[in-house]
Design a protein that fits this description.
- With 224 residues, the chain is of the alpha/beta class.
- The protein has 8 helices and 8 strands.
- The chain has helices spanning 16-25, 48-57, 71-81, 96-105, 150-164, 182-188, 197-200, 205-223; strands spanning 3-6, 30-36, 61-67, 85-89, 109-114, 132-136, 171-174, 192-195.
- Helix 2 (48-57) packs parallel to helix 3 and helix 6 (182-188) packs across helix 8 (205-223).
- The structure holds D-xylitol-5-phosphate and zinc ion (ZN).
């Protein structure tokens, strides 16, 4: 099932509740929440109190992307705040297997992320542990960057590995997704598509969301 996940990084934070409610009415079921600490990436965003408020404001699944130096310390805090799914970077985890299992034992889905410079092979020994995998299609830190096409080759590699090993994990993509490249992204085998500026930096975010969902569904129909 293909899902579009609006990334609130590009939302108007002063109108966050209102913008999310409008997206939910348009059928949005999952929201992507970018957490940055100014160390792992050169930007600072939000912390657990915002997730706690989001939890009260929406029934959508909260997909929390930790771009921070110490995910082991903070993943349980974000789960406690209401995150349903936690994404940790392979590059930030010294004991990735342990971190993923810890997230699951705390009651959330555990996803792993790879940066553009990290090969899929780095995940070979955790693919049977993870609940999902996110391929970064920009270098993390900012919204509104250009899609790096090599991400699609990595998605295809993951699709092949998933099939060979009889696994089921959804594949997510994050960064630079537009209405124009969405069809290709779905064709490559992505199930969950994060979209920041292409949803929020438009005159009508719910309409942009609906259009992206339609494009994604059309591409899925062609794929099957
Ligand atoms: C980038 C973040 C993304 C970002 C995507 O570091 O992880 O989730 O919000 O924004 P767009 O879709 O504008 O590239
Ligand atoms: Zn993200």
């Amino acid at each position: 099932m293909v899902e579009i996940l609006p990334s609130i990084l590009s939302a108007d934070f002063a109108r966050l509740g209102e913008q999310i409610a409008a997206l939910e009415t348009a059928g949005c079921r999952m929201l992507h929440v970018d957490v940055m600490d100014g160390h792992f990436v050169p930007n600072i965003t939000i912390g657990p109190p915002v997730v706690q408020s989001l939890r009260k404001a929406t029934r959508a699944i909260l997909d929390v992307h930790l771009m921070i130096e110490d995910p082991d310390k903070y993943a349980p805090v974000f789960i406690q705040a209401g995150a349903d799914q936690i994404l940790v970077h392979q590059e930030a985890c010294r004991h990735l297997d342990r971190t993923l299992r810890m997230i699951q034992s705390e009651g959330a889905k555990a996803g792993v992320v790879i940066n553009p410079a990290t090969p899929v092979a780095m995940l070979d020994d955790v693919l049977d542990v993870v609940d999902y995998v996110l391929v970064m299609s920009v270098n993390p830190g900012f919204g509104g960057q250009q899609f790096i096409p090599n991400a699609l080759r990595k998605v295809r590699q993951l699709v092949t590995r998933r099939k060979e090993r009889g696994l089921q994990f959804p594949i997510e993509i994050d960064g630079g997704v537009t209405r124009e490249n969405l069809g290709k992204i779905i064709d490559a085998g992505v199930e969950w598509v994060v979209a920041g500026s292409s949803v929020f930096h438009t005159v009508n975010p719910p309409a942009a969301f609906e259009e992206m969902r339609r494009i994604a569904h059309d591409a899925t129909t062609v794929r099957v």
